[in-house]
Amino acid sequence: MKKTRRTEKTVEIHEIYSIRTASGSLPALCGNCSTGDAVMLTPEQASVLAHIPTRAIYRLVETDAIHYREVPAGSLVVCLKTLVAASKPNDDNTPDASAPQCQPVKRLTQESGD
User: Fold this and answer.
1) DSSP labels for the chain?
2) Rounded to an integer, what distance in angstroms lies between the CA atom of residue 73 and that of residue 41?
3) Residues 36-77: pLDDT tens digits?
4) CB 98 within 8 Å of CB 60
5) 10 Å Cβ neighbour count for 114?
6) How confident is the model at residue 103 (pLDDT cuts 50, 70, 90)?
7) pLDDT tier at 96 (50, 70, 90 boundaries)?
8) Contact 107, 13 (CB under 8 A)
């Protein structure tokens, strides 16, 4: 009789992004976040970093689900920290219906016969 051994591995991926502006200035910080380290980005920049559509970000802004601010030039900036928090699942492990989905952690399964 052949035994089957199953090995399961979990892979966690961390990404670091460098945000540069044409003027060389640093991104604004969110004044509403208590830690004071949350970066404010345009919806287009946040869309790329959070892997969600820009329209989903505008929906979250319209429902006040994330921190945002209109800058004097009339454009919008959103808090990346609250955007990421809005996309996490609820306590019962079901995602918030109004929030975009985060990409799941990839599970690798390897089966070998002995």
Assistant:
1) ---EEEEEEE-----------TT-PPPPBPSSSTTS-PBEE-HHHHHHHHTS-HHHHHHHHHTT-S-EEE-TTS-EEEEHHHHHHHTSB-TTS-B-TTSPPPPPPPEEEEEEE-
2) 14
3) 778 889 999 888 888 889 999 999 999 999 999 988 888 899
4) yes
5) 6
6) very low
7) very low
8) no
User: Hey, what are 108's tokens?
Assistant: 């690798």
What separation in angstroms does the CA of 5 have from each of 8, 29, 82, 102, 109?
A: 10, 50, 42, 32, 11
The packing angle between helices 54-62 and 43-50, to 10°, is 120
Specify the pLDDT at position 109: 45
Sequence letter at residue 22: A
For the record, the structure tokens of 6 come out as 């199953």
pTM: 0.59
